[in-house]
Structure formats: structure tokens, C-alpha cells
Design goal:
Number of domains: 2
CATH superfamily of the largest domain: Type I PLP-dependent aspartate aminotransferase-like (Major domain)
Number of helices: 11
Structural class: alpha/beta
CATH architecture of the largest domain: 3-Layer(aba) Sandwich
Order of helices and strands: HEHHEHEHEHEHEEEHHEEHEEEH
Shape: globular
Mean pLDDT: 95
Radius of gyration: 22 Å
Number of strands: 13
Low-confidence stretches: none
Strand content: 5-15%
């Protein structure tokens, strides 16, 4: 991943393209494909295969806990980040008069559960300025009725990366609120320091390079009672309905993170998650950050010289892996880039570029040269 030999060995598909769209879809290493094949072999064993299924689940939880800075007991795996936030809404059981703070740089998974018509809470919006969120703008939104503040660590929209310590201090100083953080656009790309966060959520098909069908959830033990999902099912319950007398007695969810694991685990995704996290741990997120940071710096500096509207704040140009800009002809630009085997995202009013540890300076140079030519073409037309 970090040199030509390991890149060619682990990511052979990258020989044929300049892939700069990890913020949407990560390219899995070959180890993830091998893990999915192992799942298929274990599944052929029928019920005997479940022993290995659950061993993979525990390994995936252990690795997730290490990345989150938690214990295995404080981690669960559900189906996606959207499910995690909807289960979180169920756990909170908000009432009239409660308040929730979201922001305008967040991904819909973390913001929209609170915008549904059946949500009784009042929603307040922490609005960005020049593409950044400022703690000074958050504090006036906090008060005794604030139940939740939720945000992404790195914005999917423009790559802005929040400094968590001052936000944690503000939330817990000025309100009794719980603080939830979506680390989807950070996990596997930058080292995490999540002290003081009450709920951690991540999807699995982007920077950690696993598959779809996974949602990583972390709940510190001190907050377990407040994040317990009152849902029906089996594996997440303390007392699932037995066969025979008493099978319709009231049930109770396990406290905290385990209550988010509603239903049968998605074992194919879990095999992929375990393999991807194991791979990332072997490479080292700090090494990925050290390798990718100069690429982001060079890419940002090059794009800034072009006739586009930068959306990524200058102060955060090297904090994470996303660079975004706006141009009236973004779809035409994307077509020209794609014709040159350059994969980026053009959506939501902007072009978004994402640089991971499998990218190279040659990728950046190819992008900048092709983008400059594409802009000349569309501007001339």
C-alpha cells in the first residue's frame, strides 16, 4: 500500500486507473477478497461453520475497539452507519422539549433521523462559515434541554476536519448532551483520538476498504445505559425468548454497544471487516497519514492555482484525505477525467477528490495535468 511493490501486490486493479474516490468507495486489498472466499467455505459447513463465523465477529470487534480506543465489550457491528444512527434515535427516546444539534457539513446518515416528522425534538443547526465549523457558533445552541450533538469528524462534503477536544469541552460544559461522532471519512486514513465522545459510528466500505453491509458502533461503558436500544431480536438481548414456558415474558436489551447488534450478524461483511482492519493495522494508520499527507498538500496547492472555487478550507487542506471544489461544468469535467481513467466524485454541487495510502504522486500529477486541460476545454467551449 505504501510502496510500488506492495501496491501492485495488494491492489492490482490500481494499475489500470488513477483512483481518487475512496470517500465514496474504497478499493479493498486482496486480503479482503480472500476473507470473503473463506466465508463461503465456512458457510458450506452449515451450522458447524458458525463457530468460525462468530470467531471472525469477535476478531472484528476486537480490532474495531483498538481503532476506537475502547474495549471489545464497548463495540458492536450493525449493517451500516444509517442503521446505527436510527437505532441511536430509538435508544434516546426523545420527547417534546428535547433539543438536538446537527450541522450543515454532516452526512445525511447522522443528520436526517432527527429531521423526520415523527421526531419530537427541536433541531438546531450548527452552521458552517467558509466551509468550517467554529466552536464559538456551537456554544449558543447548547443548553439544559440539549440531548444530543452529532457531527462527522471529517466532512464528506468538503473534507473539513473537526478538532474534537474543544467541541467535547463545549458540549459537556454547556449542556447535559450526549456527543456522537461519525468517523466514516477518517477511520483508516488518520489516527483517531476520541476521548469524551459518547457514541462512535463508522461505515465500512470507504477508507477501511472493507465491504458494504457493516456499521461499526462504539459506546463507552460509562454511557451504556443512555445508549441502549429497546428493539426486538435475539443476539442483542439479555434474555431472548426461550422455547417453552415463559417465552413471551418481557425482554431486555444488553446495555450499550451490544444493543446495536440487532438481528443475525452480517457475517460476509464481518469477514471483510476483520480482514480490512487487520490489513490496516499491519500497515499502520500513522504510516498511511505520513504517506498521504504530502499528496494532499501537492494536490490542494495545484488545484488552488486553477480557475475553480475551492470548498476545502485552506487551514484544513492537509488534515484529512478529501479535497473539494466547485465549477459550473463539473459533470463535463468528470467525463474528461474518467476518459483519462481518473476516478473522482462529481455530486452535490462539487467535485470531490479523495487520497488514500494506495495513491501516489504520479496519481496527483496525472490528475492536475488532466484537470487543467479539462478546464481549458470547458472554459473555451
Amino acid at each position: 500500500m505504501l510502496n510500488a511493490e506492495s501496491r501492485d501486490r495488494d491492489f492490482p486493479s490500481l494499475k489500470k486507473m488513477t483512483y481518487l474516490n475512496t470517500a465514496a468507495e474504497g478499493i479493498p486489498p486482496k486480503a479482503v477478497g480472500a476473507a470473503l472466499e473463506q466465508y463461503a467455505r465456512d458457510k458450506l459447513l452449515g451450522m458447524d461453520g458458525r463457530l468460525q463465523h462468530f470467531a471472525e465477529l469477535e476478531a472484528a470487534r476486537r480490532l474495531t475497539a483498538e481503532f476506537f480506543g475502547l474495549t471489545t465489550a464497548e463495540v458492536a457491528i450493525c449493517s451500516c452507519s444509517s442503521e446505527a444512527f436510527n437505532l441511536a434515535a430509538l435508544a434516546l427516546q426523545l420527547a417534546e422539549g428535547d433539543e438536538v444539534v446537527i450541522n450543515d457539513l454532516d452526512y445525511p446518515a447522522g443528520a436526517t433521523p432527527w429531521l423526520q416528522a415523527n421526531c419530537p425534538a427541536t433541531v438546531k443547526i450548527w452552521r458552517s462559515r467558509a466551509g468550517e465549523l467554529h466552536v464559538a457558533d456551537l456554544i449558543p445552541l447548547l443548553g439544559t434541554r440539549t440531548r444530543l450533538v452529532t457531527t462527522s469528524l471529517v466532512s464528506f462534503f468538503n473534507g473539513f476536519m473537526l478538532s474534537l477536544p474543544p467541541v467535547v469541552e463545549a458540549v459537556h460544559t454547556h449542556s447535559p448532551a450526549l456527543f456522537a461522532v461519525d468517523v466514516t471519512q477518517a477511520l483508516g486514513r488518520v489516527p483517531l483520538e476520541l476521548g469524551g465522545v459518547d457514541l462512535i459510528v463508522s461505515s465500512t466500505h470507504k477508507w477501511i476498504m472493507a465491504s458494504h453491509g457493516g456499521g461499526l458502533v462504539g459506546v463507552p461503558a460509562a454511557r451504556a445505559a443512555e445508549w441502549t436500544v429497546p428493539a426486538g431480536g435475539w443476539f442483542h438481548l439479555n434474555n431472548p425468548m426461550p422455547l417453552g414456558p415463559g417465552r413471551l415474558d418481557p425482554v431486555q436489551s444488553q446495555a450499550g454497544a451490544p444493543s446495536f447488534a440487532v438481528g443475525m450478524p452480517n457475517f460476509p461483511a464481518i469477514y471483510a471487516i476483520r480482514a480490512a482492519l487487520d490489513y490496516l493495522q499491519g500497515v499502520g494508520v500513522a504510516a498511511i497519514e505520513a504517506t498521504a499527507r504530502p499528496l494532499v498538500q501537492a494536490c490542494y496547492a495545484g488545484i488552488k492555482q486553477l480557475p475553480v472555487e475551492m470548498l476545502t478550507p485552506a487551514g484544513d487542506a492537509v488534515q484529512a484525505g478529501i479535497i473539494a471544489f466547485r465549477h459550473p461544468e463539473m459533470e463535463a469535467i468528470q467525463r474528461k477525467l474518467h476518459a483519462a481513467a481518473i476516478h473522482v466524485m462529481a455530486a452535490a454541487g462539487r467535485v470531490r477528490i479523495a487520497l488514500h495510502g494506495y495513491n501516489t504522486m504520479a496519481d496527483v500529477e496525472h490528475l492536475l495535468e488532466t484537470l487543467a486541460a479539462a478546464l481549458r476545454d470547458v472554459n473555451a467551449g
